[in-house]
Amino acid sequence: MRIRTAGVVALFALALAASGCGGDSDEPAAKETPRAAGGKLVIWADDKRAVALKPFAEKFGQENGVTVEVQAVSKDLQTNFVTASQQGSGPDVVVGAHDWIGNLVQNGAIDPVQLSAEQKSGFNETAIKAVTFNGQLYGVPYAQENLALIRNTELAPEAPKTIEDLVANGKQLKAAKKVTETLCLQVGQNGDAYHIYPLYASAGGYLFGTGANGDYDPKDLGVGKPESIEAFKKIGALGEKGEGVLKRSIADTNSIATFTGKKCAYLVSGPWAVADVKKANITYDISAVPGFAGGKEAQPFVGVQAFYVAAKGKNKALAQEFVANYTTTPELAVALYQAEPRPPALTAALDQVKGSDPDLAKFQEAGKNGQVLPAIPAMAAIWDPFGKAEAAVIGGADPTSTITAAGKTISGQIK
Amino acid sequence: MSTPPSGPGSVTRTPGREPAGSPPSRLPRPRPSGSRPSRSQVTRDHAPITLTGLAGKVLLLGLTAGVAVWAAFPLIAAGMWAGLALLAASTAGLFYLYLTRRHIPAKYLVPGTLFLIAFQVFPVIYTASTAFTNFGDGHRGSKDDAIVAIQSSSVTQVPGSAEYALSIATKGDPATGPLVFLVTDPGTGAVSIGDTGGLRQLDAADVTVGTAGKVTAADGYTVLNFGQASARSKEITDLVVPTAGGALRSSGLSRAYEGKAVRAYEAGCDCVRDTETGRTWTADEEAGAFVASDGERLAQGWKVNVGLRNFTRVLTDENISGPFLGTLIWNFAFAIGSTGGTFLLGMLIALALHSPRMRGTNLYRVLLVLPYAMPSFAMLLAWRDMFNADFGLINSLFGLDVDWFGQAWTARFAVILVQLWLGYPYMFLVATGALQAIPRELTEATSVDGASPWQSFRAVTLPLLLVALSPLLISSFAFNFNNFNAIYLTTEGAPFPADNPTNGATDLLITYTYRLAFGGQGAQFGFAAAISLFIFAIVAVVSAVSFRRTRQQEEVWA
């Protein structure tokens, strides 16, 4: 029995060493390796961008004697980042859209970035404006995107000047059985505030007024105001009970496919649609989204992709160095463009790629009068109610009562 | 809040429960003879120790210890001593239990109980405790976190100040020596040295300045390279060199700027003061935010207990309580409809295939199980597209012009139809199993007695089937009651009334809760947790009542 107990103890010690205790001896060992001595930078990005970033991040690491790790977070990057940084397991740098800023700041997840005046001047003005929140620069932009009208030039050789022109031409094509839909603009069952916004703005609607310093003012909500009701009357007239141009059956899942299937001559979409359009061998051209005749110019939202420094990162100085001094180089911007063709925010990088890709210049031209997508936290309250009101009006609901109710819901959600 | 697991046939499959493919145990069966209860008792006490048994025991206990050690380090690092004590106690308890030869039943019960506590009881307790807080976007961390965030995000560059080129240096060892900033003013080329004591100019003769204006060497100092410097990242970020206009801070490892924290927390008034505008925001411990006198809040708040506010909000806020009742009724209709519908269809097909006159039953069975074999995740998306009013298969196939997801009743009908398609194969499978366990002699006896097939079904087959399948039906009901995927992947709750974007015609409580938690004005975990508790209570009551009724039923029929 004595021997058996000794055997149990010995075997147990062995198993312990094999299973778990290896874990705690890892850490001191890791500290001794020379690579880790230089500190480690962890970057989170979505799948596509993570692939594009990797070689550059590695180069940065080699040049500076540090370890750089790019981790792809394929789903819910923003929420995962907020949760992880709250728990202290987040990255040092995160890559994402500029309209996250409001939420990330209110959760204390990102720190401001200090760029020199010279660095700032290298960027497109809109892009810098987009990442500025409460007077502070919270990220370094690298690409921007906006909606435009993509049209099949075989069916519609001329760019329409107004929505009315577009509808008239689309109807002719429909009567001639060349297409089945007038316009592919995604609405979906629950609406899509981003895609309807150019028309909403053209008809005079607005989301938030701007304060004295040019920032959006969450207290001045445009939804539910008379301007928005007028705008939705015009949008409703294009809806299912009116002209039948806007339909809930056209959604994010089928709008591009319907266009590439030549069922409609016009598509309202962004740079991300171009790859599919090219693949479908459609001769196309890109122009600005037209507005209503006699109305204002149609303004698409301009969104910016940016690098952020995590407030609770373990290696903030290195993260600042990477974001402020390395991501501002045109080479990186060009590489990210090649991974996914969206116009670079750095003017120098845009000039470099513009020559080989005429679509970029056209998208940029279409977004020239665009409006920076608001990054204030109150914007989160807009998307859902606004989209659903849009879907209801397009489905034939009364614009006045619908939009008034949506405005009420939104203002009720804004603290 | 959790979403139901998806996977093949997740619609009606209940995690953790075995399908009743085996014969119901309550039917009379001959008892196995020769079972001697005393034998196992005897063998256990004198069981020889086998090598595999010993190795298995050692390996498992070693694993337990390994997991415990692995889990202990983060707990120690976070200073969570209560959690560590709990871990130590449960590990010690496990060792005691499996190293002694006593407590045989506990050896079987304890692992399951531990997992139950870890994966069921803790999450429920955590949800319950969250329900009493304002945890959500803007209120995630502690007050200290909020103060740090407010102060650090208010640091702005002093207008007109210079942009310095920065090198980080130390007098002593690169890894431990006290850090200093060596900064070069690009305008004048003057080099200064800065530490917490302030900034003083260095003699140009003592330093070597590189091409980018950075100091590459300085007498008496070791200039750190990026690798060395980044290892001390936190110290660099924290090093603030006071200057006349504010303070010199690092921006990365190669630049420094003169910045000023405009907002600062003052403990005396428990408020945040803006030194430029003079505005103050006083801490409001009930709201978990700094609030100015005019009601303006700073964005960065903290988590506070709000008592029963989340619960009363469900009941008193008329935007929530009104739709809540409507959603609850539809939720019951959906759960009953999908469970009952799939059961009826599944059972009818099982009965048809059970008939001895049926030929080619195996082929039918294979075909019938197909929907069950497809991932419901993908199938739900496919069905969503099939119901598209203009491009969908259903309208074009039948020449219809129905706006399926655009009207409340057609949308409800559509989601139940999809549930039926996805769920009946499962019910068919379990009903087939249960039917085969009912002795044919029983039905034959009824026909000898002159009963019609319908009478024999009503009096014999159905009751016996129900006895076997009731627990499955109840668990299937509970699962469908919270069938998030079924709604979220098809209609997302649509159609929504024109004047109410928060609560759609096909919304279940769980999709509604999800929208509250993650949609609208950012995440509101506290409020969503309160609704989850309501759902939990409803499902628990329904299940308890049904199980009680089932037991009574068994007493009648068994």
TrEMBL record, chain A:
Keywords: Signal, Sugar transport, Transport. It comes from the Bacteria. Residues 1-20 form the signal peptide. SUPFAM superfamilies: Periplasmic binding protein-like II (SSF53850). Belongs to the bacterial solute-binding protein 1 family. This is Arabinogalactan oligomer/maltooligosaccharide transport system substrate-binding protein.
